[in-house]
Write a structure and sequence with these properties.
The chain has 13 helices and 20 strands. With 408 residues, it is of the alpha/beta class. Helix 1 packs parallel to helix 10. The protein is globular and about 65 Å long.
């Protein structure tokens, strides 16, 4: 047997399923939601995530569905430009390998690429028991099932991590902000292909146009309470309290919020764990090492972790403990650098003081000066990791049998 249950059908889960299937494993995807999620925030996609997308043959779809913003612009209450820069700066820093995507579009592409993999929607794991020869899971609706391995790819609030490693509070590091995102339809004005940012001390609103006459709003504000509102109604009430009468288009935005369908709302957090595996269970993506949504790299890092874990499993020939150790050894220090960079960036979008806002605006203006953008953010954008080329397609490299991998 070589069965692997993957909990989570976001970014990391389908990517892992694709590579495991290519290597000859039998992955199964499990998702608590009843279908793939739509809408949500946008991500900036570059670096090694871009490389993995190329290896998966995804670039035609990414080029088709991606967005190529031309300007990042900060405005005042009257909508006048305070600071900004042309986003060709990012293209220069990434050798032209840079695109903005809606996260749900990337998730859909990855899921389609993993076609043929058994997928269970509308169910979740409520109990995990490791046996000498397998890991047994109790599903909320689907009874008990056995697999050789279990991988948690279920995000910041990972159920697998909670069940196997302990409560989220043991590993979560709050960065002091809350983020919300929603879509509006038919909103005006539309500043096409521009990231538009407006803020007051400790809070900001971002606006970006999407296809089909949609507009995405991203809100980031300082966290003042440790307990977040849980219902959409209470979340919207908090946003009205914070942004009501705040100038610029905030009241118009709040009117759109009342009509919005899905609202994303969460704390800006990191997950820091001493180990990403225990026995026959491993974690990938945000479940293992969330760097924070505001870092803009979570999806690419999820794809990197999926690729490396699948490759190490394929190379190990069934020695899963060796594979898990190799996976962590390759990525731990790299992810640590990304997390430290994300901590520095956390307050840049919504500085808590007017002095901080003025300093942020000066830095943003400097990006238009040749060379200064590389000096300011080049280290955070760089991918200092050698991505292995496992060349596994169709077979696993060592110690396989006609019945698949002999796990040990």
């Amino acid at each position: 047997m070589n069965s692997v249950l993957i909990s989570g059908v976001g970014i990391a889960g389908p990517a892992l399923a694709y590579w495991l299937k290519a290597a000859g494993f039998q992955p199964t995807l499990l998702e608590r939601a009843s279908a793939l999620r739509s809408g949500g925030y946008v991500i900036d996609f570059w670096g090694l995530g871009y490389t993995i997308a190329e290896r998966m043959g995804l670039m035609p779809e990414i080029s088709r569905d991606g967005y190529y913003a031309r300007e990042f612009r900060i405005v005042d209450e009257a909508g006048r430009r305070l600071a900004g820069f042309g986003t060709d700066v990012f293209s220069e820093l990434t050798n032209g390998r840079y695109v903005t995507l809606q996260r749900s579009d990337l998730s859909r592409m990855l899921f389609e690429r993993a076609s043929g993999v058994e997928t269970i929607f509308g169910d979740e794991i409520i109990l995990v028991e490791e046996k000498p020869d397998c890991v047994e899971v109790q599903l909320k609706h689907g009874g008990r099932r056995r697999f050789d391995l279990l991988v948690g790819a279920d995000g910041l609030h990972s159920a697998v991590r909670n069940l196997v490693f302990g409560p989220q509070a043991h590993f979560e590091r709050r960065l002091g902000y809350i983020v919300a995102a929603f879509e509006a339809h038919g909103y005006r004005p539309r500043d096409e292909d521009v990231y538009l940012i407006y803020g007051q001390p400790g809070r900001m609103v971002g606006r970006f146009t999407l296809r089909d006459d949609r507009t995405l709003f991203l809100l980031v504000f300082a966290e003042h309470h440790s307990v977040l509102p849980e219902t959409p109604a209470s979340q919207k009430a908090l946003l009205r309290e914070i942004y009501g009468g705040d100038g610029w288009e905030c009241d118009q935005m709040l009117a759109e919020l009342e009509r919005a369908g899905e609202l994303y709302f969460d704390a800006v957090s990191q997950i820091r764990m001493p180990n990403w595996s225990r026995g026959r269970v491993a974690l990938i993506g945000d479940a293992a090492f969330c760097v924070s949504l505001l870092a803009g790299q979570g999806s690419a890092l999820a794809m990197i972790s999926a690729y490396v874990l699948a490759g190490e499993l394929a190379m190990s020939g069934g020695r899963y403990l060796e594979a898990f150790a190799g996976y962590e050894a390759r990525l731990k220090s790299y992810i640590g650098r990304k997390q430290r960079g994300a901590e520095r960036f956390a307050g840049a979008l919504a500085p808590r003081t007017r002095v901080g806002m003025l300093f942020r605006n000066v830095v943003v203006r400097s990006f238009s000066i040749p060379g200064l953008a590389r000096l300011a953010i080049g280290r955070d954008i760089a991918d200092e990791l050698e991505l292995p080329d496992y060349r596994w397609e169709g077979t696993m490299n060592r110690r396989t049998t006609t019945k698949g991998v002999q796990w040990r």
